[in-house]
Amino acid sequence: DSSVHISVTVPSPPAPAVQAPSIQELFDKAVKDAFFDYDKADIRTDARDALSQTAQFLRSYPQLKVVIEGHCDERGSTEYNLALGDRRAASAKQFLVSLGIPADRMETVSYGKERPFCSASTEECWQQNRRAHFVMAK
User: Fold this and answer.
1) Beta-carbon count within 10 A of 15 CB
2) For a FRET experiment, which of 14, 26, 42, 84 has its CA 20 to 30 Å from that of 70?
3) pLDDT tens, 124-137?
């Protein structure tokens, strides 16, 4: 006469796989627009902070290339705003170059007032439209 004691442990269900964020999700979280004053293309203090954060992200992902879009608010002619948007994009690019990001990783384009982020005719909305916006290059 003998007895046997058997323990059976049921494995706990596997934890759901935590999917790492995509490079696009990381880009969208880390890369910030640089905003500009009315009729200006010089880098403001808040834009320096945003561009410094963008430079840090680009240093971490040296394979990435970006397009810097220059945008303006609705005031002024189409031609004037295309030129101003170009200066804004170039200014953001030059600032990133000064932080060590190679120029050949960035291209610029101006949309002037043609692609507004906000469409209300208020100063708050216009401010959101005066920006250098970053897009991952394809």
Assistant:
1) 6
2) 26
3) 999 999 999 999 99
Q: Where are the alpha helices (DSSP H) in 9-137?
A: 23-30, 45-60, 78-98, 123-129
Nearest to 131 by CA among 41, 64, 62: 41
Of the candidates 43, 28, 16, 44, the residue with the CA atom closest to the CA atom of residue 97 = 43
Residue of higher predicted confidence among 119 and 89:
89
Give the orientation angle of helix 23-30 with respect to helix 45-60, to 10 degrees: 160
Query: What whole-number distance in Å separates Cα of residue 23 and Cα of residue 15?
Result: 24
Average pLDDT on 94-113 reads 97
Per DSSP, 38 falls in state: T
State the first-to-last Cα distance of the chain, in angstroms, to the nearest integer: 76
